[in-house]
Each structure stands twice: as structure tokens, then as C-alpha cells.
């Protein structure tokens, strides 16, 4: 495993644009620059309260491999992320709900574009929080496009999620408008609600700066979905190799809820990883290198030669 203290190379990113219907979607690509054939293509899927670049390409001075995209490019992967409708640089027109189902449709449109541009045929797909729900819903729609699926901070029925229990108290406010305001204090609350101290202040500050530079509000669609419509995913329809990743202190992802989902996954190529010392936003935590290690091991696992 690459040491967290290793020097971080400069990796140049490239922006792309595509459409889902008439809604413009922003995509961000980072890839090896030395002409190597990629070890695979990773699609990163963001959550409810932040766009894709602050989540997966966060640059923090003095924090080696702060960018997950840079880390996996160094490992030989081509990496992509996309801002869902309503987030970041993508379309934010009035009427944009940005539901889980719409996010899955955005991922179909994004992968349509990536396939045309690069010839990639399938994607190692990682989603976090509501991004995990989006990634799972995308997998139900297009299983042939998902080589391996990583679901981090995932929620199935919502049982045992004290974060969702508290969020439901504000449901009337979410239903009143299309968007909810965010600021840096809100970003700090993500890290302080479950286990304060699991992330460095300088990382939270950089994350908050990156999020609020792109958005001062977020769409309510995923919040309403997660408070009123769970379960949204049928484990029987997730037929690809899958890993469930849960931070030790994550208030969204109830352990028993995830274990019940895991048992029903039909593919025997499946894993359940508990990440010690991590709460909700795993890639921004002090133990982020554990997250990278788990993902890299899963994405590079050999296919079985014998299935019985």
C-alpha cells in the first residue's frame, strides 16, 4: 500500500460536459498521463450535500493523497466524477428535485458519454451516502456497466439510523422548497454529529471551502427520498460483485440494516468492511488511507477461476 507520507504527484484534470435530456451535466476526469493502459475506470458518485470535485478531488496542503482521484490515478486507474443535476456546475434550473432515481439517470447519461469518449465498457463504481443509493440504483438500471460496486455509508431501510431520525423532524421544511441553504457551519456539522475529532480541522475547512465555492444551497430530493421512501434498492437486483463499507461511528448507516441487505445480495463475490475510527464522510477522515486501501484491494481483486 502506498504510504500516506509519500510525495503526491501533480495530476492534471480535464472537464467534460454532456446532457441528460436538456439538462447539462459536468464531468471531471483524471487519468494516467504516461500512456499506460488504465487498470480500470472508476466512477465516483457524490452525496446529498456536496458536489463531486470537493468530495473526490480535494486538495489539502500537507495531506498526502488528499485527492482520492489522484491516489487511484497513481495506482493506474482512470477516474471520473460527475455533478448530479442540482449540484456544483451541473444544471440547477428551477424544478430540479435531484432525487435518487434522477441521479441514477444522470449516471446513465454520464456513462453514455464516457463510453463514447474512452471506449470503457464497465466501471468500478463507488458511491457514498446518498451517492451509494444513486450508484446502487444505477446498477439496477445498467448492471452490465458496473464491474464492481462499492457502497459507502449506504442505507437500506433506514432502521437504526439516528441521523435520518433527526432529519425527519425537518421534513416539512424540505417539502416546502426545492433547495435548502448550506454554509460552512453546516459542513462542520457533518463531522461533529457522530464523533467529533475523526477528521482534521484543516481538512473540514478545505472541504467546506470547496463545497460553498460551488453551492450556497442543495436540492432536497435525496433528503425527502431517504426520509420517506426507503427502501429504494432491491438487493436481489444488485447482481454484480459488491462491497458494503461502513464507518465505525456512521450515524446514517445502521449496522444491522446493512447486514440484512448484505445477506440478500445474490452474488457470492461480496464483502462487508467496517472502517475503524471513521464516522460519515470517510474520505475526509483522519483514517482516509484505510478507505483507499479497502477500495484498491476490492477493485483489483482477481476474478474467480472456479465457481463450483
TrEMBL record:
Keyword Lipid metabolism applies: no
Superkingdom classification of source: Bacteria
Entry's Gene Ontology molecular function annotations: monoacylglycerol lipase activity
What InterPro entries has UniProt attached to this entry? Answer: AB_hydrolase_1, AB_hydrolase_fold, AB_hydrolase_sf
The record ties this protein, via Gene3D superfamilies, to: alpha/beta hydrolase (3.40.50.1820)
BP GO annotations: acylglycerol catabolic process
Q: Tell me where in this chain the AB hydrolase-1 domain is found.
A: 41-181
Q: Which keywords accompany this UniProt record?
A: Hydrolase
Keyword Hydrolase assigned to the entry: answer is yes
GO cellular component terms given for this protein: membrane
Q: What is this protein called?
A: Alpha/beta hydrolase fold protein
Taxonomic lineage: Bacteria, Pseudomonadati, Pseudomonadota, Alphaproteobacteria, Hyphomicrobiales
